[in-house]
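Lecture notes, unit on protein representations.

Consider one protein chain, 422 amino acids long.
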Amino acid sequence: MRLEKAAITIFGKRIFYGWIIVATGFLVLCVEGSCIFYSFGIFLKPMIAELEAGRAAGSAAFTVFQLVVGMSSPLVAIIIGKLGCRFPMAIGFTLAAVGMALLSRITEIWQLWLLYGVIVGIGVAFGHLLALTTLVNLWFVKRKALAIGIVVAGMGTGPLIFSRPIASLVMTLGWRNSWLVLAAVVFLLAAIPALLFMRDRREEDDHLKEDSFDKGGEKDLPKASKALWTVRQGIRTRALWFIIIFACANQFTLNMMNSHQIAHLTDIGIPAVTAAGSLGLMVGMSGIGRLTGGVLGDRFRPRFLVAVAVLVEIIALMIFVSARSMISVYSYAVLLGFSYGMVLVLHMVMVSKYYGARSYAKMAAVVMLVTTPIYALGPLVAGYVYDLLGSYLVPFYACIIFLVIGCLCALLARPPVWKEKN
């Protein structure tokens, strides 16, 4: 294996290095999704039972986690802009692994908030979507949506494969020892690969636009996406705010269901492992949705694809609210997973296509900074309402209303127009 500028030679065959970035990003998000993000719903009930806490208090840890990851995005954008993505990602996942290992020792609920919410959250912030999609934007031009879709699909593929094994692990070893196992996995399969294979694109690589896979380069891109947008200019465009609203609706729903879907299903009599399987199916279908969004995002207008996907999310939640059989639950999981996966990829594609690769990190950080405080409240609100009313119906219907608003905003999110006076 030999590395030469923007290409890598493996067994005598020259491969564009951007695809190595994509493969590593897929692996990293596969591990993060299964071991950190989507595993929280599996750990929730056994943890709060031993810590003698309510669901609102337990869900607060996930809310803090989301807030830390999202609110630190401007700082992450500045650091990766100065240092690149490789070392911050490796250090971040190492910190996350340490925090997860320490979770095995907690005895008070505030320790869950501190370790999972803050320590793990800070670590994940440096290795999450902002860093990975920034790398993809720098390495790819015409196949950008496809590359983003493949990378982000890792967040869905991991839980599809590992949700049931993690649930079984928790039942067999207990939640404390299970955190130790997952911490080791994060260090070995996320921190180490990030250090070994992630590479920031250098100026001398600019003449290679996806190697022989892409002959077009940047000359075919619209003027706005080639301009260097400032944050102030970006927030003055309607498109960015419409993207923020529908992305927020999508993530608010996702976070609520991720944290409380298993709890709700076990409340209505479905076994815990089976409920975890439905979560794995939902997240797995999101992987297919992310790939589909990546493929279609290079061919069709993303805002129309987003509107259709959000409409499917609304239908899925209406099925879930009245679900009493596993057929209904699986139907919901397939529809919601596929559709929210598409929206997750397409909103990043829209930011990239509307504002360009050079401005992507700044604009994506703005989106995360504004949306995070809102969608991070999803798990906390659902837990509080459940503790108050003993039912999840009110928060579920609130998600449906939010998604209707998001669907309308997607249709209105036309590309911004770059004006020379900017």
